[in-house]
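re: ur question from the group chat, yeah i did fold both. here u go
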Amino acid sequence: MNYTAPWWLPGGNLQTIWPALYSRRAFGPHPAYRRERWDTPDGDFIDVDFAGTSQPPGQSQVMLVMFHGLEGSSSSHYAEAFADFARERGFAFAVPHFRGCSGELNRAPRAYHSGDYEEIGWVLQRLRDRQTGPLIAVGVSLGGNALLRWAEEMGDAASRVATAVAAVSSPIDLAAGGWAIGRGFNRLVYTRMFLQTMKPKALAKLAQHPGLFDRDALLAARNLYEFDNIFTAPLHGFKGTEDYWARASAKPHLQRIRIPALVVNARNDPFVPAWSLPAQNEVGDHVILWQPAHGGHVGFPLGTMPGHVRAMPDAVGNWLAAQCGKDSTHG
């Protein structure tokens, strides 16, 4: 990915915050999503938003599936930009929401986590079953790590579901990411922002399922390590934060991937230290690494102020399209 940041947005933090708040997301109309609610095998539900095509299920064109990041949704800036890319290319587009991220509290005690490859697999298989054309998937941040974990666990069988996958700004070494986001400016800004939505959701889950965790301990959590130790890890079968971060990280298993996979990380991402990123000789033949010097965390803005955020969706989307025989200009 040949990316150069605009001169007026220097540094990883500005390249992260400004695009999320102010940059243009779509070159055409903002996506008009159609929502489906799917009942899960464990008696819960997830909400999936569709855009990018007016054709009914079972279409033969390419379907692009996007898994959002921590506390993201189909209205996140990167989701709307990918929806706009799909509209231009004539692709079907789907955004499955992780549990609790679609605007309504889910029913079961579980929520979602960075290694949630079983949920990813269930969603992708269901989309595969209704889709006759190629299926390609991109995960952003947390969603990208979970998508890579799915590809790693599936091995050769992944090709029966998806043609190719991509992960953007994903903390594939969760311990390194946790260390980075828990320090200095990151802790004051990003950690506080995440906890402002995650704590109320957890407390609503506690009201729904009394005794699920220690309320006072959760209220006292000051960073994601402590939050994950109290809530995320035990609710999803991990011994604690360190066990969760170790077992859920995609980086140690990238050589197990057997379908084309693209891993994009800006080297100035505030959440993902450059020193934690893998080299090409560490990831196996099926994985391609793009590690531009700039871009921030899911930023990659371009153009004059206020800029736009289509650079990354265009580059990643075109790479994915090429893997299923679609060139960069034709759907």
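okk and heres the other one u asked abt
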Amino acid sequence: MNREDFLARTELLIGNEGLNQIKSKTVFIAGLGGVGAYAAEALVRAGVENLTLQDADVVSISNLNRQLIALHSTLGKKKTEVMKARLLDINPSCVITTKEFFITKEIMPRVFDKEYDIIVDAIDVFNCKLAFLRYAFRSNSRLYSSMGAGNRIDPTTIRTGDLFESRNCRLAKVLRKKLRHSGITEGISAVWSEEIGRASDICEEGKDRPINGSISTIPGIFGLTLAGLILRDIIKNAGEFT
């Protein structure tokens, strides 16, 4: 083992085969907000080297309270560009592709222009999330999804499992119903909170949906948990920790 390798401590924990499996995976992450950016960084710090990052947004001042890439120095910059630069600063060997288009049902065939081992859904717009999950489920990829992290504050209520086992998350409830209509009844690994979310009736100017309240901790925990599920599954498949 090369003691100068930044992954030396990771290799001590999971072994050479586990690390090689992590390095070999191709990952697509949709959404680089409070959840997706934490997931992306955790995966790269664990050894993932080939990622595609999708987000159509730029960093705004309202992101500063919870998003990993949100700093005064990054305000107004594309989230994909900021995230890519940050990940390459961690591991310059990474191969990172960025996609800045807004995900809609109509362009789904363009979203996945190649096959991926792992697909991560960290999208926060419902119709886009539903279209993404429906399309991604039909691929040969392992699919991981974040449910609602907004309007919650208690980290002890965060749960993981199949999306169709989730409870007390309104977003997950509506998604389950819509996905069942598409013939999807299991097979999406998810993270959700069983805390009853705090309702909001405040709408952003020019939009008809309420703004979710948020805090610095919960979105990041969701993102790190998603990354943890992914890494656990990779390592198990590599024969480590069985």
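fwiw on the second one: The radius of gyration is 18 Å. The chain has a mean pLDDT of 92. idk if thats what u expected
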